[in-house]
UniProtKB/TrEMBL annotation:
Gene Ontology terms, MF aspect: siderophore uptake transmembrane transporter activity
Family annotation (SUPFAM superfamilies): Carboxypeptidase regulatory domain-like (SSF49464), Porins (SSF56935)
Annotated GO biological process: siderophore transmembrane transport
Span of the signal peptide: 1-18
Subcellular compartments: Cell outer membrane
Protein name listed in UniProt: TonB-dependent receptor plug
Organism, as annotated: Haliscomenobacter hydrossis (strain ATCC 27775 / DSM 1100 / LMG 10767 / O)
Family under the similarity heading: Belongs to the TonB-dependent receptor family.
Lineage: Bacteria, Pseudomonadati, Bacteroidota, Saprospiria, Saprospirales
């Protein structure tokens, strides 16, 4: 049966080469300890990977002949070794790396469908990896809001005052313009809306990749502001079991486990399981929850099947179920039968399948699919909304490297989205259940060319046929120029689009009530133009009185996005029903991001960031600032890290006044945090004082008008939960 399946999966190749398996080990030259996460590249081939927790890496499908292997690791000097294959039986290639003061950003990036490192791709990609990922995950182990919110140019915006729902904003554009991916597959959009960020767990993440600016050529509609790709861990040579327990002063509890093992030479397995809960929390004593009572269960098993040495199949599914209840504290706690409430009951079941086949050193094919069913009940005091969304995404793409300095990627994809509203209705609001179907078929091609070590050019073209709306043609160009090893520049220019949908931040704030479905008969696609330009410099300097140099890096980004005919929700004359329309105008966001990083003697690191965002709506000759977007934002983090012993961090974030929908402005505010972690060989404990200045919107004024049993909430521009302490333990058993 296995042989038959292999034959069916194997695609014809023009040339066949003898294949080898290469065993590699990377260690610290001084301590001889293994280095996890070191990147290995076979120069001239699309072959590479990263070492596991034991410092080991197995490279498959390496052809016979002489090859140059390049080994890179953060904070260590890169080295190269020449090997001639085949090697003798059981031979192992060992790299011993020496530390250096300046850290290298040599992270393999997957969001561009290439295997290039972050320093060698024309597309600007930010990667959250390693210690940074661990440190941010300690602050909020139950979801990824904190992980993203502390990056320059990104803001996680709370959209519900009582249920703590949240969405992501990149460069001033709201959440529907950002694609959230899991291993390159779209799984979080549409009906899930403000619940998506709350239901993504960080424990199994290997890295998080962020592309800011239009990425629609790469992944289709919806990536106008950018995309976030959550890359998960794969089975490693050594089994791994990670356990996490976390509790908060606000009554939260997180219990998570991640298990990874190679069951035999041909089968790998990972499992993520988590149970998260919270209690009704009202730090302002106003009788309304800032954090709702909730319970969530998540499970994600995945299998890897390795056929011979050139075909891999990944199969997995994701299941989660959550019940969130916010509103009147007495009602939520069961002390009253009456009062305002907002209940979200949701369930997700998603499957993932990916088949990768590499017939020879130049060709690689990938077929992947996800089917995602998400159901949701949103129940408030006066009405009830329920519905289910069935979404699917399928993609076939191929990668061809005619020469070592050229790469051609092309593919096809089909995406469908079917939403159907439930038939149960409130007597006071009878209506015909709404049904929405969106389908599109896309083709894309991307060509990357490096004429020399200084220049790399990347061009792309995507054409999507969107049912009812016609064709969207999306060209894209990106370029990388390396003036020296320390100085480089990138430019990215591209078009994007977004298909009109019921699920926006505006419609969710109305609990989707009284809203007419968007129709292709009266609406057009939202279309965009975007350009990013950034400069990078890396160097070092020495101050009087210091024994060693301070290494630093600087990244300066300039961005501009114009979104034509954006979708807006307009009230009809009755004031209780709404319809979508294309604004006769545009949204324009422009600004800059500055990122500075300083390192001294390994333990000390200082991160400084500044974001300037001018986001405006232009229509009928008027230009007004888009609401809930601070023009100025400062990020600062000071870290002290003794490897495998201590990790201490102090952070401060500044938000300038934000424009609000009623033409008023919010006050400016600071958010500060302090965290620490003590590490031993197989376990650690962590303690985090989040927002210890107790900054919250209730300190600046009332958050609602009317009566508490029927509140009309104001826009949310600041934290609602205030000062929260969390503490926990992480254990690695295997």
């Amino acid at each position: 049966m296995r042989k038959l399946l292999l034959v069916l999966l194997t695609l014809p190749a023009l040339h066949l080469f003898a294949q080898n398996t290469l065993n590699i080990k990377v260690r610290d030259a001084a301590t001889q300890k293994p280095l996890s996460g070191a990147s290995i590249l076979v120069q001239g081939y699309n072959i590479g990977g990263e070492t596991d927790s034991a410092g080991l890496l197995i490279l498959r499908e390496v052809p016979d002949g002489e090859h140059t292997l390049q080994c890179r690791y953060l904070g260590y000097r890169s080295i190269q070794r020449n090997v001639t294959l085949p090697l003798t039986a059981d031979a192992q290639v060992v790299f011993s790396l020496s530390e250096q003061e300046e850290e290298l950003e040599e992270v393999l990036i997957r969001s561009t469908r290439s295997s290039r490192s972050i320093a060698d791709i024309p597309t600007r990609v930010e990667a959250i990896t390693g210690e940074e990922l661990e440190e941010k995950s300690n602050m909020k182990p139950g979801d990824v809001r904190m992980l993203l919110n502390e990056s320059t140019g990104i803001q996680t915006q709370q959209t519900s005052a009582s249920s703590a729902n949240a969405s992501i904003r990149i460069q001033g554009l709201d959440g529907r313009y950002t694609q959230l991916l899991r291993d390159g597959l779209p799984m979080y959009a549409g009906l899930s809306s403000g619940l998506s960020l709350l239901q993504i767990l960080p424990l199994d993440l290997k890295q998080v990749e962020v592309i800011k600016g239009s990425a629609s050529t790469l992944y289709g509609g919806g990536a106008i502001a950018g995309l976030v790709n959550f890359i998960t861990r794969q089975p490693e040579a050594e089994p791994q079991l990670r356990l996490l327990a976390n509790t908060t002063s606000a009554g939260g509890l997180d219990l998570s486990a991640f298990y990874s093992k190679m069951l035999d030479d041909d089968v790998g397995f990972t499992l993520l399981a988590s149970r998260n809960s919270g209690s009704a929390y009202d730090p302002a004593n106003i009788g309304l929850t800032a954090i709702p009572r909730f319970n969530r269960l998540s499970i994600n098993p995945r299998f890897w099947f390795y056929f011979e040495e050139n075909t891999t199949i990944q199969v997995g599914f994701n299941y989660s179920k959550e019940n969130r209840l916010g509103g009147d504290v007495d009602y939520v706690r069961g002390n009253s039968r009456f009062g305002y409430f907002e209940r979200n009951i949701s369930a997700r079941f998603a499957s993932q399948v990916q088949i990768d086949h590499t017939p020879n050193k130049r060709l690689h094919f990938s077929l992947r699919n996800t089917i995602n069913r998400f159901s949701r009940i949103l129940n408030q005091r006066q009405f009830r909304f329920e519905g289910a969304q069935l979404a699917s995404f399928s993609e076939l793409h191929g990668r061809f490297r005619p020469k070592s300095n050229q790469e051609l990627i092309g593919g096809l994809n089909y995406q469908s989205d079917h939403f159907e509203e439930g038939t149960r209705q409130t007597l006071s609001n009878p209506r015909t259940p709404r049904i929405l179907n969106i389908r599109n078929f896309g083709t894309f091609v991307q060509y990357t060319w490096s004429p020399n070590e200084q220049y790399t050019l990347e061009t792309g073209l995507r054409t999507d046929l969107v049912q009812g709306y016609g064709a969207a043609v999306l060209p894209r160009i990106a370029a990388l120029y390396k003036l020296t090893d320390a100085i480089s520049a990138r430019i990215n220019i591209g078009l994007g689009y977004k298909t009109p949908t019921l699920f926006t931040e505006q419609s969710e704030s109305l609990a989707f009530q009284g809203i007419t479905l968007p129709s292709a008969d009266s609406l057009n696609l939202e279309r965009s133009f975007g350009i990013n330009f950034d400069l990078n410099y890396r160097g070092s300097f020495k101050l009087p009185g210091l024994s060693k140099e301070i290494s630093f890096s600087w990244n300066q980004l300039f961005f501009y996005t114009q979104l034509n005919n954006p979708l807006v929700l307009q009230a009809r004359t009755s004031g209780t029903t709404y319809t979508f329309a294309n604004l006769d105008g545009d949204y324009v966001t422009r600004g800059l991001e500055t990122n500075l990083k300083f390192s001294y003697r390994k333990p000390w690191k200082l991160f400084l960031g500044y974001t300037f965002t001018d986001a405006r709506s232009r229509s009928t000759g008027e230009s007004v600032q888009l609401p809930l977007t601070p023009k100025h934002r400062l990020n600062s983090v000071l870290m002290y890290e003794l490897e495998e012993r201590w990790r201490l961090g102090l952070e401060a974030y500044y938000f300038s006044p934000q424009g609000l929908g009623d033409a008023s402005r919010s006050p400016a505010y600071w958010i500060c945090g302090l965290m620490g972690e003590k590490m031993w060989e197989n376990w650690s404990i962590f303690l985090n004082f989040e927002n210890f200045l107790d900054t919250r919107q209730t300190r600046f004024g009332a958050i609602y008008t009317g009566f508490i049993n029927n509140p009309q909430f104001k826009e949310i521009y600041a934290p609602m939960d205030g000062f929260v302490v969390n503490a926990g333990v992480k254990i690695s058993i295997l």
